[in-house]
């Protein structure tokens, strides 16, 4: 969602993806975030440390297990993700507007085929 966006500033693609996941999915444990992002726990730990230093991530005790911590996107991170998502949607809409009817039909057919394959 945030990848390759200049507005994401110092965020690596992995950091941007993890931040977007937290913003979208809500608080989660580090291991669950690592699993969702398909990276190792040590890799996610480094990502989380960086996001925390930037003020984009907060930690809180897990109410179900006091030994564990829940990670969540801070309000500034939520604003960043929301703004970048809106900008990306606007760029996508502008690109779609430049397609003619035939190109849109081809794209619609291709996407329907991909969705069918993913649902199998």
UniProtKB/TrEMBL annotation:
Q: Which residues form the HTH marR-type domain?
A: 1-116
**SMART domains tied to this protein:** HTH_MARR (SM00347)
Q: Which UniProt keywords apply?
A: DNA-binding, Transcription, Transcription regulation
Q: Which parts pass through the membrane?
A: none
Q: Which InterPro entries match?
A: HTH-type_Bedaq_tolerance (IPR052526), HTH_MarR-typ (IPR000835), Tscrpt_reg_MarR-type_CS (IPR023187), WH-like_DNA-bd_sf (IPR036388), WH_DNA-bd_sf (IPR036390)
Q: Does the keyword Transcription regulation apply?
A: yes
Q: Which GO terms describe its molecular function?
A: DNA binding; DNA-binding transcription factor activity
**Statement: the UniProt record of this protein carries the keyword Cell membrane:** no
> Which named protein is this?
MarR family transcriptional regulator
User: What is the species of this protein?
Assistant: Nocardia uniformis
Q: What is the lineage of its organism?
A: Bacteria, Bacillati, Actinomycetota, Actinomycetes, Mycobacteriales
């Amino acid at each position: 969602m945030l990848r390759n966006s200049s507005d994401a500033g110092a965020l690596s693609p992995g950091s941007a993806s993890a931040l977007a996941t937290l913003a979208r999915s809500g608080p989660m444990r580090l291991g669950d975030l690592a699993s969702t992002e398909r990276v190792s726990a040590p890799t996610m730990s480094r990502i989380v440390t960086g996001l925390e230093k930037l003020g984009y991530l907060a930690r809180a005790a897990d109410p179900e297990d006091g030994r564990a911590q829940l990670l969540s996107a801070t309000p500034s991170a939520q604003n960043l993700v929301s703004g970048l998502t809106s900008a990306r949607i606007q760029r996508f809409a502008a690109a779609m507007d430049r397609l003619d009817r035939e190109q849109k039909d081809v794209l619609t057919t291709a996407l329907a085929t991909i969705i069918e394959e993913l649902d199998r």
